[in-house]
Design brief:
The complex is a heterotrimer of chains A (457), B (325) and C (313).
Chain A: H1 2-11, H2 13-24, E1 30-31, E2 37-42, H3 50-66, E3 70-75, H4 81-90, E4 96-100, H5 101-109, H6 117-121, H7 131-136, E5 147-159, H8 160-165, H9 177-191, E6 194-196, H10 204-215, E7 221-224, E8 227-230, H11 235-250, H12 262-270, E9 274-280, H13 284-289, E10 298-301, E11 312-321, H14 327-346, H15 348-360, H16 375-384, H17 393-402, E12 408-409, H18 416-432, H19 438-456
Parallel strand pairs in A: 2-3, 6-9, 11-12
Antiparallel strand pairs in A: 1-2, 4-11, 5-9, 5-10, 5-11, 7-8
Helix pairs in contact in A: 3-15, 10-11, 10-18, 11-18, 14-15, 18-19
Chain B: H1 13-16, H2 39-68, E1 71-72, E2 80-81, H3 85-92, H4 94-114, H5 116-126, H6 132-144, H7 147-157, H8 165-172, H9 187-212, H10 216-224, H11 229-257, H12 261-266, H13 278-287, H14 295-324
Antiparallel strand pairs in B: 1-2
Helix pairs in contact in B: 3-14, 4-9, 4-11, 5-9, 6-9, 9-11, 11-14, 13-14
Chain C: H1 30-34, H2 36-68, H3 72-77, H4 90-97, H5 101-133, H6 138-147, H7 157-165, H8 179-186, H9 189-201, H10 204-212, H11 217-228, H12 230-246, H13 249-254, H14 263-271, H15 276-296, H16 298-312
Helix pairs in contact in C: 2-15, 4-15, 5-8, 5-9, 5-11, 5-12, 12-16, 14-15
The chains are: A alpha/beta (457), B mainly alpha (325), C mainly alpha (313).
Chain lengths: 457, 325, 313
Amino acid sequence: MKSSRRIAIAGLAALATAASLAACSPTPAATTADGKVDLRVVSLIPGSDQKAFDAFDAQVEQFEKANPDIHVTSEEYEWTGPTFAAQLAGGTLPDVFTIPFTDVQTLIANGQLADLTDEVNGLDYAASFNPNVLAVSSDAGGRIFGVPTAAYGNALHYNRALFEQAGLDPDSPPTTWDEVRADAKTIAEKTGKAGYATMTQNNTGGWQLAVATYARGGRLETVHGDTVTVTADNTGTKAALEYLHTLRWDDDAMGNNFLLDWGTINQAFGAGEIGMYTSGSDIYTNLVQAQKLDPATYGLTTLPLEGADAGVLTGGTVAAVNIKADDAHRAAAVKWIDFYYMQKLVNQDAAVLDAKTLSESDQPVGVPALPIFDQATLDTSREWVKDYINVPQDQVQFFLDGIFDQPILPEPKAHTQELYAALDNVVQAVLTDENADIDSLLTRVNTDVQALVDADA
Amino acid sequence: MTTTELRPGADAPIAAVLPDGSAPPRRRRRGSPLVLLRGGLATLVFLVPMLVVFGVFSWYPIVQAAIMSLQKTNLVTDPTWVGLANFVTVLKNPDTWVALRNTGWFALLALLFGYPVPLVAAVLMSEVRRLRGLFTALAYLPVVVPPVVAVLLWKFFYDANPTGVFNTVLGWVGIPPQPWIQNAVAAMPSLVVEATWAAAGGTVIIYLAALTSVPPELYDAAEVDGAGLWRKIQHVTLPQLRGVLFVTLILQVIGTAQVFLEPFLFTGGGPNNSTLTILLLVYRYAFQNSLGGDYGAATALSLVLAVLLAVLSIVYFRITRRWSS
Amino acid sequence: MTIARPRRRVQPRLVRPRLVEPEDRGIASAADRRRPVVRRSYRALHGILLVLLVVVGLGPILWLFKAAVTPTQDTLRDPMGLFPHGVDLQNLVTAWTEVHIDVQFVNTIWIALGSWAVQILVATTAGYVLSVLRPRIARVLNGMVLATLFVPAIVLLVPLYLVVLHPPLIGQSMLNTFWAVWLPAGANAFNILLVTRFFDSLPREVFEAARTDGAGPFRLFWSIVLPMSKPILGVVSVFAVIAAWKDYLWPLLVLRDPAVQPLSVRLPTLQKAIELDVYLAALAISTLIPIVLFLVFQRLILRGAGLGGAVKG
């Protein structure tokens, strides 16, 4: 019976599919048919424009030419909490990926990152890393689990066009929080746009509240020996929240939309909806690549610092390698990290080639950053590529002139993400509820996060 | 029987909407003679898809869920048994109660907005003689829009600036700009309005199907008794719809209790957790932290929700059975 | 709107529901309708209803199509204006060719088709066993299937994720493959319930006759039961396709690679990464095709939704 056989086959389809599954799933460490090492790396964040991807592909080509035994497969990537958690749990992270400074130590402790000590020590610039920066990606015993590739300081970004429309001088940006407030108010009154904005969602609200806290001399956690005390109710944080409250409710200078995170605030800024906001000094790349920002409207200056222990919250990116990578993949991975992330910082030819590739496809060259090695190395590398620099330098000069005199501070260490998540709510409450009780909100954050910290002990 | 007869009463809600509307046939004493015919192997072959798919993707994960709710596990380090500690953690977390309240509020608003409107629309539409197709198509159109697109589009409509889409329209009639989703009080109703827009068409079609299968004889009989239009609706139409109304009500409650897409995409649970729902909280437990989630707590909270919904359904069916008999 | 007359085939007449078909009469009798008061208020009410339906049902969609071809700044400054600075068709081209939503578009179709195939396969075979073949364990199986109705999908989120990560027997992770969406979609108790109850209502005499003619269980399934089941398969199909469209959380978790993501997962990611006008164009494209499909299969879809809708909500 012909039909019955067809049914039998259909009935068994579910089993048959099982067999074919093996054929279509990606394997974490693989070699291609011709014996090359197939290296999976992360490329750019989703939605970056085609020219950026073209520039990336060109660099992959250069790398493969120099390393004929390696084949590079790239996938777009943006580090966010939920996506990273799922990839980590699912074991779907590529061979090389990037993570923020704050996550590195826990990932090392959980055995999630490959030990790169031997490979990294084989690089000729290994000894010249700023020790404080390299410590971010090393364990207590000095084993290295990742390569710091970039560091940023938080800074004040402003829209020069809105400053001009409001009758303000874009060449004299505010230097105190009072001046920020006055300018924000003027911009809001004259242009109808948000004079000042801040992130509030997906942990970025807490992150930027930490920035504002540090800038006023406060700290969210204090460490004595092994004991971590959560101090979300410190005077710096309170001052920062009261400041936001004033701008929002007294001055009406923060616009009408308050649910913003890293991407959406960049988008709003790129669309000319925001006068000023604080974020990492390196976001120019995203503003240009994804948000189509008109470079002429961009301005960058240092954060106002007020109070005794005030400082700039910094952060950065570490390139790490999947724990599942075998020796061949690990070696290839460090080669890629060296080529793609590091050579442009330490090698003149590579720096020039990188800058040329980027500038030819209209990608930003010369984005303000903090040194991974030392100030001299950073200055030299900028000197090499000065012909290609297309980030309008005079518009970011206030930042470049000021940042190296500002004290640099790391993010809070214990349960950073939970702390930030809890603070998101506080920032949202202050911006959307005129009667928000700042003291009791902060006390609750203290209790909740302290409970998590204590549970570890 | 050539017409669909909707049997009133919720005691057999599923039978009420079966194609022939008949009660399920009484089980014959263990199978038809067909079982004996070519029994074993063929039966087995036909069973394979269900056994594999349900076994692997339903029954096994259900058992897993029960186990995980008793463990501390983040999928990275080894799981450890913690007894009922996850349930304690979840129930002691004040956010759980916020989420429960918000979810209840969403469900209630969804009923207030989404229950009467489609009913009135369907009753009116059932009386349309010409262009019925146009009416139904228009009503159903929003259901066809992919839900994610609908939310993202409405998120843009809800722009709180005076130049936002809705605020512009309000400006035409002299109403000042509203904060929509940017305000803890207004956020939830805004979400519900979008959800109702997206779903009401489906409900209209269901009611319409039920309405058109009300036996005409009942109206004829009512007219003989001298009933006017309004009394016919009151004494014939609505009672005939009772079965469908009961079922859609509980299904809507169960559905809205699991709301995720709207708060996730509109507000991320904000402002200040005013749109945090149970499902969003489960998601946060499991996937918010990049360093590995608390999957035990996530499963424990889902089980709490499951038990709540099961109890609710049982109580509901008990009550409605009494009403409808 | 009329439904095609039943063709002469082995199609039980009892499963012809009168659904969106205009009735011989409604609530108002012919006599009612002749009364001027009733006629006028009916006309007014229907007019108002039609206007409301156009504004509410069609309005937002028309706005989207307008915004899709409007430059960003016009949409931001004057969202209700009609092309103050002209039309920009380039948005649509950019969304399709540069942002590559064509990839996710095809993925969406694959996901819908695969989910549909798995659901139909599981529901029909299971329904056949539970309703027609009825082995001794049918009762137990039926109970186990129905029991899953009471477990909200959310409970399975995490354990199901683990299963997809490490499927039993296969061992090879299904993450970032369509199977991760297709196979769990098949475990749908509503489908089995619908199909089983439908099969229950089929006349047993036909089966007996077929058996007397020497038809085995496979032939009975393929040549008798399935052809008689078109109405219910239509219902299940409509649900399967709509559910595949709607699904968000699950594909978001298991399809992390943009190359296999459906539109529903990709669009929120793009929201903050591409310019507003191109983004709205992408939304418009994602809406256009379902609407076209709806208009083409309107009758089937509305009938399916009305029939099974009450069960599934």
